[in-house]
Amino acid sequence: MGHVFVRLSGFGMRLLPYWPYEFERDGETPDRVRVTHWADASRLTATVDSQHRESAEGIVDVSPGPEHQYWRAETGIYGFTWPDGFVIGVSVDANDPTPFYLFGPDEARIYPQGPFPTEKMLDAAGWTGPGQKLAAQYHLDDIEVFELDFEYADSPWWQTHWAFPVGAGQSLVISGQCPAAHHDLVRNAIRHIVETLSDTQP
After folding, report:
1. Alpha carbon separation from 119 to 49, 122, 170 (Å, rounded)
2. Angle in degrees, CA 152, 123, 93, rounded to 5
3. Euclidean distance between CA atoms 30 and 138, whole angstroms
4. Strand-pair category, 29-39 with 21-26
């Protein structure tokens, strides 16, 4: 498979990876990103930063982009500022409909769902799966937040869904789950995503 339309923009560049891929940043060098392409049993990597803006065949294409001094993840519909502490990547399962994941420590992950017709959005009962308990439900302006507790591998885990309108009759859900010990990290990252979410720029 070739390109998947999820890209990074910033520091004068746009990075368009080849599926399946992963973006990982260098915490000490804000503009530096390591791009990984998983090709069968091989792991191909390339590093891109302001001094090294070259495309790497079959891994990532690099083109001129916006000059803002931070990385922004973009889909065909919306974009958001990449939160700290997470790697952006995809499932290697070609049948997984999720366009991307943000992978954190200890199997923590954040992922989008939708957009969906707002009239078909789930209520609290709909978001609560087998073995899960609704721990909290609240609103932040026009965002409805659900928080759930559950057990996984004999350990306490936490899940959340943030549902909010993104257009006429449409709603997007940003979901996350993690070991309970990391719930603040995941919650704060989702809040950051939602606060920086906007239409993708040309």
Report:
1. 44, 9, 8
2. 50
3. 34
4. antiparallel
Strand 87-89 with 101-103, pairing: antiparallel
Count of positions (residues) in the chain: 202
What would the two tokens of residue 17 be?
A: 């990876």
Burial of 74: CB neighbours in 10 Å, binned 0-12, 13-18, 19+:
buried
Tens digit of pLDDT for each residue in 123-178? 999 999 999 999 999 999 999 999 999 999 999 999 999 999 988 899 999 999 99
CA dist., res. 186 & res. 158, Å (int):
10
pLDDT at 201: 58
The model carries a pTM of: 0.92
For residue 110, give Cα distances in angstroms to 113, 189, 193.
Answer: 10, 8, 10
**Residue 124 tokens, joined:** 């609290």
Q: Which residue has the higher pLDDT, 166 or 182?
A: 182
| Closest listed residue to residue 17, CA positions, set 49, 68, 57 | 57
Give the other-Cβ count within 10 Å of 29's Cβ: 12
DSSP line for 133-195: EEEEEEEETTEEEEEEEEEETTEEEEEEEEEEEEETTEEEEEEEEEEGGGHHHHHHHHHHHHH
Task: Give the pair of three-digit tokens for residue 192.
Answer: 């950051």
What does the block give as tokens for 43? 């792991």
